[in-house]
């Protein structure tokens, strides 16, 4: 398509005379008029031909098709073998459109489009909305493309990612009126003026909007977004460095259904902005109390006061990302420990988090199941003692580059029996002794990261690899499964 490149292959109608030969490993596909037959290469299968030279296949008297397809497709035609015996055979062209659509639904996006180029019957089946359920169209919008949008609507596509944009965004919103998710991540030429012109009426079906790395977007755009997209549940603003506390006040006022908010690297956001979201002041009109996932990664101006606001107002929060928030200290974890719904806590590279913070979490009754304190230089064996005495619900624990040894590992191995993922890469003090303890006690471990653990040997690795549920072992350059 010259007007706009679409990573989802278009579905054109083919002329009956078109003949093409495709090949994949283990299968041969021959296109003929009007259908395509898939002929597996198994030795037990006998290929038959009828008078029209359309290939069929059988396997030990069976049709060669899946059981559910045999049961739902009754249009079988008798075939005559070289010996003159009549054998029932089902050709793939006999499948009902509903069965074809079911098969196409399992294909990759590009293959869905390619299958539709086989014949008109396959094209019609490929246009079933069930084939495209949940698919996100990835578009390069360069010129007007009304036929493209009509095709998306016919297929029921309601999720769009714009990879590059030279025309107005309004064309997308008008062309796909029932849009549910719009991803503009990385579209650097998106401006406040462009968004204001695009969002000129209410879009009640749109629930997800991604503006990550749209660095020209500011609070002005948020004012228009919250006015016309009041049903938003997911909003991503990562890297939008012009967003301020005023923009968060707009969000707090209007987006009451918001469940996921990403403010990664929004450097102007401070404790006041989090207070708006949590609804702890009068200006915020109650805040966004439905929030379940909040990313504050690399928000350098946040302090422990922001965590106090979170613990008071955002009581339904399930996960919070505070990685690289260098002003967060152990005292802030006192507030998070009181949140009964919190399950995931990311403190990666928070330089002021230490063993004391882990004690606050454990003693405060935290129910977190995922904890990441990687690259926190002040986390040592004493932190693992606290974790082993209180954080019994942990299933994922990341301790990469922390100051831990075999002694600390032995503590958590004896109590965290439900742990499934353990990341202890670049912990240079660990030896085979720690691995032996892990192998003896953590029977439910599925994934372990040992990258950069230079003091372990093949003996320790052999013990680890005998864990009954282990599926992933990361050793750095080698990834053993």
What is this entry, summarized?
The protein has 17 helices and 23 strands. It has 481 residues and is an alpha/beta fold.
What does this structure look like?
The model is unreliable at 1-7 and 9-75 (pLDDT under 50). This protein has helices at residues 67-72, 97-104, 109-115, 120-126, 146-155, 170-175, 192-198, 219-228, 245-254, 271-278, 304-313, 330-336, 355-363, 381-390, 406-413, 432-441, 458-464, and strands spanning 4-6, 21-24, 27-31, 36-40, 45-49, 55-59, 77-80, 86-89, 136-141, 159-165, 181-183, 208-210, 234-236, 260-262, 293-295, 319-321, 344-346, 370-372, 396-398, 421-423, 447-449, 472-474, 479-480. Among the domains are: 4-128, no CATH class; 342-481, Leucine-rich repeat, LRR (right-handed beta-alpha superhelix) (Alpha-Beta Horseshoe), CATH 3.80.10. A 16-stranded mixed beta sheet has the order 1-9-10-11-12-13-14-15-16-17-18-19-20-21-22-23, with no helix packed on it. It has 481 residues and is an alpha/beta fold. Helix 14 links the parallel strand 18 and strand 19. 29% of the residues lie in helices and 18% in strands.
Q: How do the strands line up in the largest sheet?
A: 1-9-10-11-12-13-14-15-16-17-18-19-20-21-22-23
Per CATH, the class of the domain at 342-481 reads Alpha Beta
Note poorly predicted spans: 1-7, 9-75
Q: Using DSSP, what is the number of strands? A: 23
What gap, in angstroms, lies between the N and C termini?
A: 42 Å
Structural class: alpha/beta
Question: Looking at this structure, what is the CATH superfamily of the domain at 342-481?
Answer: Ribonuclease Inhibitor
Question: Largest beta sheet, briefly?
Answer: 16 strands, mixed
Overall pLDDT score:
83
Number of helices: 17
Named at the architecture level, the CATH assignment of the domain at 342-481 is Alpha-Beta Horseshoe
Shape: flat
The gyration radius over C-alpha positions equals: 29 Å
> What percent of residues are in strands?
15-25%
The name CATH uses for the topology of the domain at 342-481 is Leucine-rich repeat, LRR (right-handed beta-alpha superhelix)
Helix content: 25-40%
GO cellular component, one term: SCF ubiquitin ligase complex
Protein name: F-box domain-containing protein
InterPro entries: F-box-like_dom_sf, F-box_dom, FBXL14_F-box, FBXL15_LRR, Leu-rich_rpt, Leu-rich_rpt_Cys-con_subtyp, LRR_dom_sf
Domain F-box: 95-135
């Amino acid at each position: 398509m010259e007007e706009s490149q679409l990573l989802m292959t278009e579905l054109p109608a083919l002329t009956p005379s078109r003949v093409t030969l495709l090949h994949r490993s283990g299968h041969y596909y021959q296109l003929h008029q009007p259908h395509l037959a898939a002929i597996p290469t198994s030795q037990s299968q006998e290929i038959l031909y009828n008078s029209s030279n359309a290939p069929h296949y059988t396997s030990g008297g069976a049709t060669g098709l899946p059981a559910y397809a045999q049961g739902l497709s009754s249009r079988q035609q008798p075939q005559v073998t070289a010996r003159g015996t009549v054998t029932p055979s089902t050709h793939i062209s006999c499948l009902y459109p509903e069965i074809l659509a079911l098969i196409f639904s399992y294909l990759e996006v590009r293959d869905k489009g390619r299958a539709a180029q086989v014949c008109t019957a396959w094209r019609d089946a490929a246009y079933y909305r069930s084939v495209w359920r949940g698919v996100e169209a990835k578009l390069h919008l360069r010129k007007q493309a009304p036929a493209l949008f009509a095709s998306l609507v016919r297929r029921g596509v309601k999720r769009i990612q714009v990879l590059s944009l030279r025309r107005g965004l309004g064309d997308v919103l008008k062309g796909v009126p029932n849009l549910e998710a719009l991803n503009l991540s990385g579209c650097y030429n998106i401006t406040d003026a462009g968004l204001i012109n695009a969002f000129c009426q209410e879009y009640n079906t749109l629930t997800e909007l991604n503006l990550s790395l749209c660095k020209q977007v500011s609070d002005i755009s948020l004012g228009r977004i919250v006015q016309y997209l009041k049903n938003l549940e997911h909003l991503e603003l990562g890297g939008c460095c012009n967003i301020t506390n005023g923009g968060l006040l707009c969000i707090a006022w209007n987006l009451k259904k918001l469940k996921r908010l990403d403010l990664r690297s929004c450097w102007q956001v401070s404790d006041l902005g989090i207070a708006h979201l949590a609804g702890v002041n009068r200006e915020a009109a109650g805040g966004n109390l439905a929030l379940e996932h909040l990313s504050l990664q690399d928000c350098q101006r946040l302090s422990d006061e922001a965590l106090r606001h979170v613990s008071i107002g955002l009581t339904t929060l399930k996960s919070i990302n505070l990685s690289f928030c260098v002003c967060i200290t152990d005292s802030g974890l006192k507030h998070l420990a009181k949140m009964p719904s919190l399950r995931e806590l990311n403190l990666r590279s928070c330089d002021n988090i230490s063993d004391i913070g882990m004690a606050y979490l454990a003693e405060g009754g935290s129910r977190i199941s995922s904890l990441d304190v990687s690259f926190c230089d002040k986390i040592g064996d004493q932190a693992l003692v606290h974790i082993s005495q209180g954080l019994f619900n942990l299933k994922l624990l990341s301790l990469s580059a922390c100051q831990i040894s075999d002694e600390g590992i032995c503590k958590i191995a004896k109590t965290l029996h439900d742990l499934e993922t353990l990341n202890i890469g670049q912990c240079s003090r660990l030896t085979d002794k720690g691995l032996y303890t892990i192998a003896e006690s953590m029977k439910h471990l599925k994934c372990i990261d040992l990258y950069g653990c230079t003091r372990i040997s093949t003996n320790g690795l052999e013990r680890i690899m005998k864990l009954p549920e282990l599926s992933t072992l990361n050793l750095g350059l080698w990834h053993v499964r």
